[in-house]
Amino acid sequence: MTTATSIFEPKPTQNAPTRPFQTDDARLEPIAAKVQTGARLDFNDGLALYRSADILAVGWLANHVREKLHGDIAYFNVNRHINPTNVCVAACRLCAFGRKKGSEGAYTMALEQAWETAASGCTEAVTEFHIVGGLHPDLPLEYFLDLIKGLKERFPQVHIKAFTMVEIAFLARRAKLSISETLERLKQAGVDSMPGGGAEIFADRVRHIICDHKIDGDEWLDTARLVHQAGLKSNATMLYGHIENDEDRVDHLLKLRALQDETHGFQTFIPLAFHPDNTLLAHLPRTTGLTDIRQIAVSRLLLDNFPHIKAYWQMMTAKIAQISLRFGADDIDGTVIEEKIYHDAGATTPQGMRRQELMRLITAAGRLPVERDTLYRAVTRSEDTFTVAV
User: Fold this and answer.
1) CA–CA separation, 115 vs 148, rounded Å?
2) Domains of the chain (ranges plus CATH)?
3) What angle do the packed helices 313-324 and 355-364 form, to 10 degrees?
4) How far apart are CA 259 and CA 270, in angstroms?
5) Mapping DSSP to helix (H, G, I), strand (E, B) and coil, where does residue 334 land?
6) Which helix (H) or strand (E) holds 171?
7) pTM of full prediction above 0.85
8) Mean pLDDT: which of 96-100, 112-116, 130-134, 326-330 is highest?
């Protein structure tokens, strides 16, 4: 059972680092002055952070902000991914997950199958179902409403984080409803918050190449705005390491920051490393560890109004996620259980991780593991139940 009436806001366990900032890159000196006085960084600052060879100095600045906000705390959760269908009308060059209707490997879960899949991930008392899938040409909105209602009936204590901005816009168009009407129906069915996928890169030049069949960047932002206005929290993402450049990355982050200034509805930013295997962009190399930790650090520094930065271990490996806890990240995601989307694209990480292993990774990085629910309230475990801090 759970109890939850207020947001958990832990006190940092230590002050931000007090040792002096040092760098051999003169471009970082004025940025450091801004960071240490709490001034907002601009577009040119973002470019300088991406282009600096002094990754330790960039990391020091990100860690300064991270420890000022969260001290030594590092969050994780016990969650279960559910992908109801991989059938998708889009043909994104970046994707290895989607299949055309009737093609080899295409699947769509019957509702009972989806509920059984959810139950198979509750061995550790899951606190969150994370639900995303393809843009199915035939499934009506009612299928998804019934899916959510059935999950709520069977697992009333579990938070349902479901459907990207891309999926919401697609469902609304198919149902001939406004996005706001669609969101209201999903809320009534039991959706509690929304993930941040499908943002990819907002720049039109890039988007036309990697995901031309999806809503554009402005439509993604407009949909997120409506999600927040409907009273739902969401995450935000950026897919990096493909054909985008530094300017595209900075532009993406600053557009998210501007919307957060307006709505305050984003909880967490998750940089997603592109996995090229089995996609139409398979000729591109994978991201390096240096690129991954730099992206975490720059995100923490530019997104000054985002409470949390997540190092998604499924995408960047558990080892890089550990290091990221010293480069700006305060969250490494959760147990996940049977992740499909990035493994179809060649991810070699496990498809799930036990709660104790996540805690071990965080502790080994010198951080204090705190199990959270989706809204960042502390979870306390007993033998067969969990409670959420009030």
Assistant:
1) 9
2) 75-297+306-370 (3.20.20.70)
3) 30
4) 16
5) strand
6) helix 165-175
7) yes
8) 326-330
